[in-house]
Design a protein that fits this description.
253 residues, 2 strands
């Protein structure tokens, strides 16, 4: 049983890749569920869905801990504690709609895992061609949803300007883009600190996305001599050491 789990989580077979893609799809569906239900009044079907999602998270968490070789390091990861918070939030329906947004942190981990990136490069030409842009956009989107969820969790019910998830999202976007209309402000010291984080980190991620969008496209190809990883798409020689490169261009002009 343990060997089978280890193959699913760390193996290279098609079955293992399909399993990990299914986990990624579950993460995305969970995020969508949290966003949609934030606009709805609490109902019995939401409670049932919360508990069902929480049960899946618990099973996944236990399985990952079982196959983890470094048990101590497992508890030192931010993603582990994000999962613990997610389990508590979904298994406690009264808090689930407020804290379930932390589930988004697992999506960030999965998208940056080496095996997942390697599989995406292998399976999708679009990903290989625009990898930096896609990752920069994902980083910005994840930060946007995490901060929106944090604002909604800490301000809804005590700040009359934050009535639902849309209000929190609107504030996050206007703050992140430095538009600053001022029609919504966060209350208290914690609200001001959250605003500072949104402005500093959000602007940094936004500028990173703009940088990769507008600079000349680079391809990933490790130089056999100096190890330089990014090169111009039409590069023949490494800019750093001058060695001849053999970049696979897939017929790109």
């Amino acid at each position: 049983m343990l060997k089978e789990l280890r193959n699913l989580y760390h193996g290279r077979s098609k079955r293992a890749h399909r399993f990990r893609y299914a986990l990624l799809a579950f993460d995305l569906a969970t995020i969508l569920f949290v966003i949609v239900t934030s606009f709805l009044p609490m109902a019995s079907w939401i409670v049932v869905a919360d508990v069902a999602i929480g049960a899946v998270i618990v099973l996944d968490f236990v399985a990952r801990f079982a196959v983890e070789e470094r048990k101590a390091a497992f508890w030192g990861r931010l993603t582990t504690w994000a999962d613990v918070v997610a389990m508590v939030s979904f298994l406690a329906p009264l808090l689930g709609a407020q804290l379930g947004f932390l589930r988004v942190l697992r999506t960030l981990r999965l998208l940056h895992a080496y095996q997942m990136l390697g599989r995406l490069r292998q399976d999708f030409r679009l990903f290989r061609k625009h990898e930096e842009v896609i990752l920069a956009a994902v980083n910005l989107a994840v930060f946007l949803f995490v901060m929106t969820g944090l604002i909604h969790a800490t301000q809804a019910g005590r700040n009359p300007q934050i009535g639902n998830y849309a209000d929190a999202l609107y504030f996050t976007v206007t703050t992140l883009t430095t538009t600053g209309f001022g029609d919504i402000t966060l209350q208290g010291t914690s609200g001001r600190l959250i605003s500072v984080v949104v402005m500093i980190v959000g602007v940094t991620l936004f500028l990173r996305l703009a940088q990769v969008l507008f600079r000349p496209r680079k391809v990933r190809h490790k130089c056999p001599s100096c190890g330089l990883l990014l090169h111009d798409a039409d590069a023949v020689h490494c800019k750093h050491c001058g060695v001849v490169l053999n970049i696979e261009d897939e017929g790109l002009v």
